[in-house]
Every structure is written in structure tokens, then in C-alpha cells.
Amino acid sequence: MKDATNRTTIFRGALDLMVKSVTANYKLAVPQYYKGNIQLLLPVCLLEPMKADVALVVTKSNDGKYYQGHTCLTLDMAYNNARLIARPNSDWLNVREGK
Questions:
Q1: Predicted confidence (pLDDT) per residue in 33-50, tens digit
Q2: Domain ranges across the chain
Q3: pTM of the complete model
Q4: Residue 76: half-sphere exposure toward Cβ, Cα within 13 Å
């Protein structure tokens, strides 16, 4: 991925796939609490279509019309943050390498 010349295209395709997946199954969005706000962790599959590589952190806009992406977290970071609210109930977050 690091040496790919089409990284932007790969990332945009992964985001499109994530939006379709979360629209079809809202349980893929895992909540986390950060600085007094609830954010959602969304799976982004870069290398394989059904295997999350990172979690995109998003918050809902004040008017509720859209979600704003903020950063990407490793799956371990996302899992630790999500556990602060409740036990994560999404398979993509529970299946991490070596865990």
C-alpha cells in the first residue's frame, strides 16, 4: 500500500465500500466517547474487501445532516476506546491480528 501510486483511489474506494456497508448494517458503527462527545468508529478495508485495516473516527454535525471524519485509528486503539462505553459487538473490531 505504501508504494502504490493510486493510494487516493484505493482510499476513496474503501470509503465508498464502508458507507455502503454501514448503511446496510448500522451495527458496524461502534461508538466511542472522546472529550465529552460520542463518536463512531467505522471499518475501513484497504487491502482486503471484508477485513478492516483501520477505523475511521467520525462525529455527527451540529445540524445532524452529515458526519465529519477526523482521523484513523489502528484496530487495537479503536478496540480500547470502544471498550470504555461497552463491550464492542462488531466482528470487525473483535478480529485483530494476534488477539
A1: 888 889 999 999 999 888
A2: 7-94
A3: 0.82
A4: 3
